[in-house]
Amino acid sequence: MALTGIEIFKKLPKTNCGECGVPTCLAFAMNLAAGKAELAACPHVSEQVRGELSEASAPPIRTVQVGVDKLRCQLGGETVLFRHEKTFVSPPPFAALLPDTLSADEIDKRLERWATYNYERVGLCLRPEMVAVSAESNSAEQFAAAVARVVARDCFALMLMAEDAGVAEAGLKAAAGKRPLLYAATPESAEAFARLAKDYGAPLAVRAGSLDELAALTEKLSGLGVKDLVIDPGSDTVAAALRDQVYMRRSALKKVRALGYPTLVNAAKLADTGGDPLKEALAAAIFVAKYGGLIVLSDFQGETIFPLLLARLNIFSDPQRPMTVAQGIYEISGPGPDSPVMVTTNFSLTYFILSSEIESSRVPSWLLIMDADGLSVLTAWAAGKFVGDLVGAFVKKSGIEEKVSHKTVIVPGYAASIVGDVEDALPGWKVEVGPREASHVPAFLRQWKPGRP
After folding, report:
1. Are 436 and 413 in contact (CB under 8 A)?
2. I need a labelling partner for 374 at 20 to 30 A (CA). Which of 93, 98, 200, 236 fits?
3. pTM: predicted TM-score of the whole model, two decimal places
């Protein structure tokens, strides 16, 4: 049973050192009990106490790893109901169904096509992560052959979907060392699938007809020594699935350990979608937000998987911490002493859009990125973080003067009002106002010359 904040406080060293990020041990204990802090943040806890507090410090939803090395996916580990409370931590992997009844050529074609869905966004790589091989043939040999083809491709983590334990074991043997997710243990097959999960070191998905059956099944499997579980309530409509997902998340946060596991949503099987890929994508988007730990689709298509990946990125970005790039001088297209110098904030979207437009202009340029707490230009200016004296001081300290033969810096068009203050802070420099819109930057740079009037 989870410990209360006072019970945890009694076991802490009571140094009130503040190294954990809060001023007192009591505040840290309360955060620990609420799942808003990790025990590792306290450097003074003894190993004995660390072991005693492991239950209290564990996230209410267990963290489960699927796949290995570069293909590893993390499920669970969530601590809040709403992302603005803290943040969501484990973006749900997307898995595409791959029936083992397909021909070898068709399997290879699908895997090749799916591997092309790889997008760069604000410096991050967005891609679907998993393939769910389904034993529709109910043949151990055919299932193992399909799994082997996915393993040989080495582009996706694996989910093995089989009702028969013998067929499932053939798939596990073909995926040896890849830590696939085994789907699914039911009340009737719990013992057989628990044995497979333990023998092959695989996480196990659990499916039942109701949440009560699901809770009883997870308790049974936990008693059999299987701890890495993923739960599927078997919801048959989008509405029922949403209801179940919310109930399971609320229960887990209230320390109902039997439901404290990452969840699985089979969007491909929800009756409300009717096989329509757009409806399926819409359903999947719902469960990106609330509260799928793993989302299964019937297929990956560019027109649906990209918006889903983008929605996932937005939902699982920390709302309390803007996405930023490091402050400094960025060289674009090999600039030289006569190349233009532009300055902007360290908001990552600003940087990637602007740098992309500079590259498209084919004008070698210097881009100065100033730390403005991750705010966009206009917001940073309004907050007093991208104002003339600060921008001038940054340019002076950046070292750009040693790299160029001119003394001209270009500020964003939305920050035109800071020109006078920048010039006051940079004696001898000329300050130009650049375009307001990034799309106008290429034309501006092509006409730019050092010291132009």
Report:
1. yes
2. 93
3. 0.78
